[in-house]
Amino acid sequence: MAAWDLSVTVEDLGSDAPPVTISVASDLHVGGVILKLVEKTQIKRDWSDHALWWEQKQRWLLRAAWSLDKYGVQADARLVFMPQHKPLRLGLPNGLTLRLRACFSSPVFQTVMGVCRMLSESLPFYFFISLLLVSLFVCFFISLNSSLFPLILSH
């Protein structure tokens, strides 16, 4: 089993902070990587909403029991440790801007459906906009025919 140093950017430390370097082995599971990161940052807070984002592969490493080897993570991987839920500003046709919290680790369609559900419950007038959002997403997704990173929704 190979061992190496893995550099992980911790978003909560700020954009100017250098990446946190931890020593890992290929059989270490993702949960172990997160535990090492939390211990190394020495910040006492609730990290339960955080997960690892793999920049090069454009995917979340959400299965804590999977090893780095199973994901294919190697020493050159650029990982970011960041919250899965982030603020989202949604502009409505009447000029009103809603601030929501969206799950950026979920598939885009699931996130859009969650926003639509919230709109139809709290602002029934905008239910038709919800339907439009879903329709636009489906057309957009079919035209791309690829997996999408949830940050298409601006945050």
Automatic annotation (TrEMBL):
<dbReference type="GO" id="GO:0033622">
    <property type="term" value="P:integrin activation"/>
</dbReference>
<keyword id="KW-0812">Transmembrane</keyword>
<dbReference type="GO" id="GO:0007160">
    <property type="term" value="P:cell-matrix adhesion"/>
</dbReference>
<feature type="domain" description="Kindlin-2 N-terminal">
    <location>
        <begin position="3"/>
        <end position="86"/>
    </location>
</feature>
<feature type="transmembrane region" description="Helical">
    <location>
        <begin position="123"/>
        <end position="144"/>
    </location>
</feature>
<keyword id="KW-1133">Transmembrane helix</keyword>
<dbReference type="GO" id="GO:0007159">
    <property type="term" value="P:leukocyte cell-cell adhesion"/>
</dbReference>
<dbReference type="Pfam" id="PF18124">
    <property type="entry name" value="Kindlin_2_N"/>
</dbReference>
<dbReference type="GO" id="GO:0007229">
    <property type="term" value="P:integrin-mediated signaling pathway"/>
</dbReference>
<keyword id="KW-0472">Membrane</keyword>
<dbReference type="InterPro" id="IPR037843">
    <property type="entry name" value="Kindlin/fermitin"/>
</dbReference>
<dbReference type="GO" id="GO:0005178">
    <property type="term" value="F:integrin binding"/>
</dbReference>
<dbReference type="GO" id="GO:0030055">
    <property type="term" value="C:cell-substrate junction"/>
</dbReference>
<dbReference type="GO" id="GO:0033632">
    <property type="term" value="P:regulation of cell-cell adhesion mediated by integrin"/>
</dbReference>
<dbReference type="GO" id="GO:0070527">
    <property type="term" value="P:platelet aggregation"/>
</dbReference>
<protein>
    <submittedName>
        <fullName>Fermitin family homolog 3-like</fullName>
    </submittedName>
</protein>
<dbReference type="InterPro" id="IPR040790">
    <property type="entry name" value="Kindlin_2_N"/>
</dbReference>
